[in-house]
Amino acid sequence: MAFDTWGPRDLSAPVKTTLPEVPVQRGMVLEDVQSGWVGEVTRVEKSGGMHIVSLEDRQGKTKSFQLGFGFLLEGQAIRLMPPAAKTPAGSLPPGRTASGSVRVQGQRAQVAKASRIWVEGKHDAELVEKVWGDDLRVEGIVVEPLHGVDDLKSAIADFAPGPGRRLGILVDHLVAGSKESRIAQDAMTLPGAAGNVLIVGHPYVDVWQAIRPKVLGIEAWPEIPRGVDWKTGILTAFGWPHDTAEDIGLGWQRLLGAVRSYADLEASLLGRVEEVIDFLTVP
């Protein structure tokens, strides 16, 4: 016992105590003092200017509470705070572009060169633009969507590639034995294609899959059964609207919004895009 605490004391006001401030995290187990509800944090969201936390008990029932005072963590009273600000996984140091290259200061975009990057569709083009757009403008390289590769051979013939007029083509699902691989092999038999056309690809059904799952807060991309439109299936699995072309476009914008830099994309796409850029810019 500490005897030096004995003696006259001022009891006119309670002793002020400062509760520890703890940022809320998914997975922590909390008790709401007022209701006695005990549960695991499953969701945190902002609604009406307030942060709301959802606690799920052992029976799977969920209740929501406003962050602040009135919580116990491991039996200790705390002030529950909003999630700690984190540096985005894909963020980059100042002076770097989204592709990770050194940003060129004070240089205007070059006039577009004759060489082109072709990608399968609009979403592919938007993803390449978001990550590599700054670099491509410096080099004067334009990205154009093909809207499919079924007529790739005739499209290349119309482009008439040659020295100083090269094509770098990024194809979805370019794996051995696929329809896309046969189309690419046939296209490269065109006169003038060798040395002036480079066709590369990634293994994914769609460029959406080139976004790393953890960037989206999931462990892996959902498996979509054969016979189901892949994008519709993905949006359905996410619980997002999926019935119209507008729904598909809005769903893609949500996915694209999660991409901040090259670090948010799979290496199998990064390497292929860099290969195409090198092919078009190195003499």
Q: Could you characterize what this model shows?
A:
The chain has 283 residues and is α/β, with parallel strands linked by helices. Helices cover 25% and strands 20% of the residues. The chain is built from six helices and eleven strands. It has helices at 122-139, 152-159, 179-187, 230-238, 245-257, 267-281; strands at 21-23, 29-32, 38-47, 50-56, 62-66, 71-73, 76-81, 116-119, 142-145, 167-171, 197-201. It has a seven-stranded mixed β-sheet, with no helix packed on it. A hairpin with a 5-residue loop joins β2 (29-32) and β3. The longest helix has 18 residues, at 122-139. The radius of gyration is 27 Å and the shape is elongated.
Query: What is the mean pLDDT?
Result: 84
The neighbouring-strand order within the major sheet is: 1-7-6-2-3-4-5
Structure class: alpha/beta
What is the element string, with H for helices and E for strands?
A: EEEEEEEEHEHEHEHHH
- Work out the radius of gyration: 27 Å
What's the main sheet like?
7 strands, mixed
Distance between the termini: 83 Å
Number of strands: 11
Overall shape:
elongated
What proportion strand? Answer: 15-25%
Poorly predicted runs of 5 or more residues: 1-7
> How much helical structure, as a percent, in the residues?
25-40%
What is the tally of helical segments? 6
